Amino acid sequence: MTPDPSLHYLSPVTSLRNLTTSQLNRILVIKEKIEALQARIQSIIASGGGGEIPTQSAGDAAVPAKRILSAAHRRKLVKALAKARKVRWAGIKGEAATDSKPAQKNGRRKSAEGKSKREKEVRETGRGLVEHLDEFGRQQGHAQLIQYLETLKIHYTEEIRGRVEGRDSRVIVRDPFHADTMPDWLKLAPEQFPALGEAIYRFADRHRDRVLRRHERNANSNGLSNFMDVMVAASKVLFVYLRRGVLTQPQVVARMRDYLNIFTGKFAAVPEEETTGYLARIYSNQSRNPEPLKTTWEEHNVAGHLRALLRVAQVVRGSADGSDASQAGSQLPMLVDQITLFENNIGLGRATAAQISRALEDYQMLTKQELALWTKDLESAA
Fold first, then answer.
1. Which segments of 94-128 does DSSP mark as H helices, in order?
2. Are residues 232 and 297 in the same domain?
3. pLDDT in tens, 196-242
4. Which of 159, 247, 163, 264 is nearest to 203 (CA)?
5. How does DSSP classify residue 2?
6. What's the domain count of the chain?
7. Are residues 194 and 82 in the same domain?
8. Helical ranges in the chain per DSSP H
9. Nearest-angstrom CA–CA distance, 29 and 37
10. What's the pTM?
C-alpha cells in the first residue's frame, strides 16, 4: 500500500500536539487498513494455503475494515489532541498554559491572583465580611456559600498595628449608616436557612477557638488589633444574620457571652488558680508597668469596644430579632456587673457614650437613627 504523500511518518517521539484532527483521522483509517491486511495474512497462514497473497480489490475496499479502536478511545484521542492544540496556541500567543485544569480546592481556585481586594481585606482584618458573603452568595448561590464559609479564615497575627490609623487606611466597604436589608438571593431560598445558619455558627466558633482563644493564651498586647478585628467581624455576621431570620437569639447571645468572657477574663483568687481572659492575662503580665499598657488600650479604644459588644448582646437579648433596642439597658444584669467589676480591677474605667458610639460605628451595621437609640441611655449610666 502506497502511503499518502501528504502525511509524514511519525517517529516515536512525535507528539500528538503537532497533529490536526483531520490528520489524526487519516492515521486511524490507514492503521485500520494495515491491521485488516495483517489479519488476512494470518488467516491464509493458519489455513495452510499457498500461492500469492491476494491483493485488495475494489470490492474489498467497499467492505468496512474491522474496527480496532473503540469510539470511546477515538474520542479520548481527539480530546487529547484538542488539549495539545490549545497548549500550542497558548505558546504562540505567549500565554502561560498547562494541559491540566487549574488547581482547585473546595471548588475555589487557589491562586491568590484570583482573590478580590475585598476578599483580601476580609482575610486580613475581617472588615467587609458581611458584604463579601452577600456578593459571593449572589454570584454562587447558597450551596457554594455554605462550602465557602467552612474554609474562610481571618488571619491570626500578633503584629503591632495602630487601630485608629489602621482603620482609616482600610478600604471602606459600605456606608456605616446604611440600613441592612436582606439580599434577593437570600430571600429566594428560605429552606436553605438551617444549613446556612449552621455554617455561620461553625465559622464563628472556629474563629473563637483558633484566633480569640489563641490570643488569650499568648497574652501579647501586640495582637490587640487582630483580636478586636475578629471579635467585631464574628459578632457582626451573627447579628446581621439574626436580623435576616437565619440565626436564633439564644445561639447568638451565647456566642457573644463567650467573646466577652474571652476578652475580659477572671483573675486568680488563689495561687493554684490561673488567670483567664485576654485583657486580664495581659494586665497580669504588665501590671508593674501600667502606663504603656494604658496608652495602648486608649489608642485601641478597648473600653469602647468592650461596652459596644455588651450593648450588641443586650439588644439581641431584649429583642428576638435584634430590631428593638428599647429594652437593652435592662438586659444581662449579671454580665453587666461582671464587666463593671473587671473594668475597676484593671483600672480601665467606664467607657463614655462617645467611645461606645465610635466602637459601634466600626461594626458598620447601624443607621444613624439606630445608633442614637442604642446609645441614648449610656451617658447617664456612665
1. 117-125
2. yes
3. 999 999 999 999 999 999 999 999 999 999 999 999 999 999 999 99
4. 247
5. P
6. 2
7. no
8. 21-47, 58-62, 71-93, 117-125, 129-140, 142-151, 163-168, 184-187, 193-207, 213-218, 224-243, 249-263, 278-286, 290-299, 302-318, 333-346, 353-361, 368-375, 378-381
9. 13
10. 0.67
